[in-house]
Design goal:
The complex is a heterodimer of chains A (307) and B (164). In chain A, 63% of the residues lie in helices and 0% in strands. Chain A has 15 helices and no strands. The chains are: A mainly alpha (307), B alpha+beta (164). Chains A and B meet through helix 1, helix 6, helix 8 and helix 9 of A and helix 1, helix 2 and helix 3 of B.
């Protein structure tokens, strides 16, 4: 029974189109996002700031010189671009993951772990072991070119290989938000909701000059409104795992948390760009693309000429 | 799908779930796994106590300049951002050995001043030339009507360095 459920959840056969489109969008978005990021400056920061996180300590990794970091980040960005278009996909996704762990992890060794990019690293790992290059990739085109006329140029069959990566990302989303909800209740209990906590957070962000909009000034005038926001935040975070098992819950929880993160960005300041981008794995891109293609064909169908 | 692939991918799934649950249960960071404690502690009081770094200008009369750039928050302290920079200094400041603490803070401040000057000379910010840096612990009341991150009600000098 449990085995059946496990197999159905992770390996229910689907066509490779959705995963292929997720690969293009994920690697394309992060290639553009990190294109102008420069990690080489971390190579020049004093050792007094070096406070290694677990994985760097275990693997004895240190901050390389600025020149080496500059070279590594070029290789990483090329790997992201190659993964996006799907050329040498296995190699490029593995290299995106390995260099991604190092480059994205490096700043966390200098005093504080920011949580915005941990999910990106995990997804890079998921894509590296997946067969995400089987559809919509240059590799696929080249393979078809080589085998033209042979049986293997047939359409790719549905497989659990194409379900697993997307479900793995969903599970990570669920665990991350569940963890955030649990953290609030563990450290503060219901006081996190039923106190001036949210009002003080909103006020502090205005004082620090962080938020995009200073509407928090108006929100904090009503005691109940910040508390309602706090209650909704914890409820959404704790209930996120429901999105894994219920389609209805998915339709409510996933967009709500997406807009909650936009709300945090607008009213409190910290932007969660990486999380917002990773939400692309919740969209059934194969169905979206079919619908768009059908609509496009309808629009471009030549209407009979009437005199 | 071959059995070995199912086994491999199941093992990866299991690792991802166990890694996350481990972080949640033990409430510890095992990057990239985390218990995600952002904003988890209640902000009870409408006041903030934090470390603030100021530069001392070369120009006479010497004045103190906040290391928070008004246009681009972290322009003076890059590649750090304000949150990471303050947390790093706080960790150094909380070292129990006073000698070690003072040595770390001095090194950190000198390094910050060096990077500030390098960024300034490269034209990456328009701050004034500095001759020193001072680290304070500041306290301020929160006020929803103003942006007052640099206006402390009380402050205490923690460390100071000057260009040699």
């Amino acid at each position: 029974m449990l085995r059946q459920w496990w197999m159905r959840f992770w390996f229910e056969p689907v066509e490779p189109l959705n995963l292929g489109l997720c690969r293009i969008l994920f690697f394309g978005a992060f290639f553009l996002f990190y294109l102008r990021s420069d990690f080489s400056a971390w190579g020049e920061v004093s050792k007094s700031f070096w406070m290694p996180v677990g994985i760097f300590e275990i693997l004895h990794l240190s901050a390389l010189s600025g020149g080496l970091l500059a070279a590594i980040q070029i290789i990483w960005k090329i790997s992201l671009a190659l993964s996006c278009i799907g050329i040498f996909t296995r190699l490029s996704t593995i290299s995106s993951f390995i260099f991604g762990v190092y480059l994205l992890g490096l700043p966390h060794n200098f005093g504080k772990i920011h949580h915005v990019d941990a999910l990106v690293v995990i997804i890079l790992g998921i894509m590296a072991v997946s067969r995400c290059g089987d559809a919509y990739s240059i590799d696929r085109l080249m393979r078809r070119g080589r085998q033209r006329g042979g049986t293997s140029s047939e359409r790719l069959r549905a497989s659990g290989e194409y379900t697993w990566p997307v479900r793995a990302v969903w599970v990570m989303f669920a665990l991350i938000f569940f963890a955030a909800g649990v953290s609030k209740l563990r450290h503060s209990g219901l006081e996190w909701i039923f106190s001036d906590n949210m009002a003080n957070l909103l006020t502090r962000s205005i004082n620090d000059g962080h938020p995009l909009l200073t509407w928090g000034v108006y929100l904090v005038q009503y005691n109940w409104l910040p508390q309602l926001l706090a209650a909704a935040t914890v409820a959404l975070e704790i209930s996120y795992p429901l999105a894994l098992f219920s389609r209805k819950a998915r339709w409510i929880v996933v967009p709500s948390v997406f807009f909650m993160q936009i709300g945090i960005w607008v009213f409190l300041g910290p932007p969660f760009y990486q999380f917002l981008i990773c939400n692309l794995f919740w969209v059934p891109w194969d169905r979206v693309s079919h619908k768009l293609t059908r609509r496009f064909h309808k629009l471009t169908r030549v209407a009979p000429y009437k005199h | 799908m071959t059995k070995s692939r199912v086994f491999l991918l199941s093992a990866v799934s299991f690792l991802l779930v166990i890694g996350s649950l481990f972080s949640i249960v033990f409430d510890e960071e095992f990057w990239p796994f985390s218990p995600y404690p952002m904003y988890a502690k209640v902000q009870r009081e409408p006041s903030v106590s934090e470390l603030q770094l100021y530069g001392v200008t070369q120009e006479v009369p010497h004045r103190e300049v906040s290391m928070r750039n008004s246009l681009r928050d972290s322009a003076y302290i890059e590649p750090f951002d304000q949150g990471r920079f303050r947390m790093a200094l706080r960790k150094m400041e909380s070292k129990p050995n006073p000698e070690k603490r003072s040595q770390l803070l001095n090194e950190a401040l000198l390094d910050s001043m060096k990077r500030y000057e390098k960024l300034r000379l490269a034209g990456l910010h328009d701050g004034p030339p500095l001759q020193g840096m001072r680290l304070y612990r500041t306290e301020r009341q929160l006020n929803a009507q103003t942006e007052n991150a640099d206006q402390a009600d009380h402050r205490e000098l923690i460390a100071e360095v000057e260009q040699g």
